[in-house]
Amino acid sequence: MAKRIFNDEQILKHFEKRVWLCLPEMSEIKSFIQLILESLTKRKVEVASTVAAAAPHRLEKLAKDHCWSIFKQRAFVDVEVPEEIVIMENRIVEMCQGVPLAASVLGGLLCNKEKHEWLTILDGNTLVAGEDDNGENSIRKILKLSYDYLPSPHLKKCFAYFAMFPKDFEFEKDQLIQLWMAEGFLHPCQEITVMEVIGNKFFQLLLRNSLLQDVKLDEHNNITHCKMHDLVHDLAGDILKSKLFDPRGDGGENLSQVRYFGWDSPSDQIYKINEPGNLCTLFWKSNYILEDMLLSFKFLRVLNLSSSGIKELSAKIGKLIYLRYLDLPDTNITALPHSDKTKSISSARDYFPPLMED
């Protein structure tokens, strides 16, 4: 019931940002709220000052030797740092501006690169050249550089797709790969033909470049979940901006280009999409969805209804012939409509409610 209220249309209209907090049974609410406020961290000092129980603690920039150490660990794992890089230590530390994420991302960018590429990246790229005393500006430039050097346009699409989810979202690796597959981002090659293998390779590349973090492992030390730093998420959002529905824009955006409707896109404004036939992905959190509207998204490939409160799907969903991924956890849907046309989405059954009938 609480989850339904959290996702109710009236709540969505009045609160732009919402937080869902799971507490242990018999928790003392006051103590938890106090801990949340005391541990709040913000890059904007005025925000921290408003909510803090004490004066905000300003983090100093990372010492140069520590910054250099992080870079080396990421760029040259278990190998000696080449002399060509050692002589550029001051230049590299200057680029990172004392920001650990910058050192990690820059190190991940140089990992497994050839010597001539090092010079191109470190000495010849205008994105990081010149004086810059702002740590946040520096990391944004380095993040953009890391994105630009991703080895394929398909991998770049996989990276930008993270903007579909809210900041601080915990991603399930296998589910991400299934989404990439459904979107058509993964393509077989001569060496690898299994889509899941290609997706796992892409995931590892993003992780190696420090574009993902906070991984969780299973009992066999396999990665199961991860998160994305909020500055990295900002970059993904900038890349996907023209194709992701965002009503907070200046009103001049061309909504005919919208391809994606994500978790942060308000359900009550979906009618603003003036070319529904172009929508490929719909993450829906309202308790109902009009059948005619859903069917107007005729090229829909991904439909995520998790936690939406929807009780049943029309048999006409089979008319969405391009639909490859259907996500239904935490809904009241217990069965899919019986239709030969729904077989194309059977690969997503891992994300169906546990009580769903065969």
From TrEMBL:
Recorded GO MF terms: ADP binding; ATP binding
Signal peptide positions (record): none
GO cellular component terms given for this protein: membrane
Source organism superkingdom: Eukaryota
Residue ranges of every copy of the Disease resistance protein winged helix domain listed in the record: 164-236
Keyword presence, Cell membrane: no
Gene3D superfamilies referenced in this protein's UniProt entry, alphabetically: Helical domain of apoptotic protease-activating factors (1.10.8.430), Ribonuclease Inhibitor (3.80.10.10), Winged helix-like DNA-binding domain superfamily/Winged helix DNA-binding domain (1.10.10.10)
GO process terms (BP): defense response to other organism
Cell membrane listed as a keyword: no
InterPro entries from the UniProt entry: Apaf_helical, Disease_R_plants, LRR_dom_sf, P-loop_NTPase, WH-like_DNA-bd_sf, WHD_DRP
Keyword field: ATP-binding, Leucine-rich repeat, Nucleotide-binding, Plant defense, Repeat
UniProt xrefs under PANTHER family: CC-NBS-LRR RESISTANCE PROTEIN, DISEASE RESISTANCE PROTEIN RP
Family designation: Belongs to the disease resistance NB-LRR family.
Protein name: Disease resistance protein winged helix domain-containing protein
Organism: Solanum verrucosum
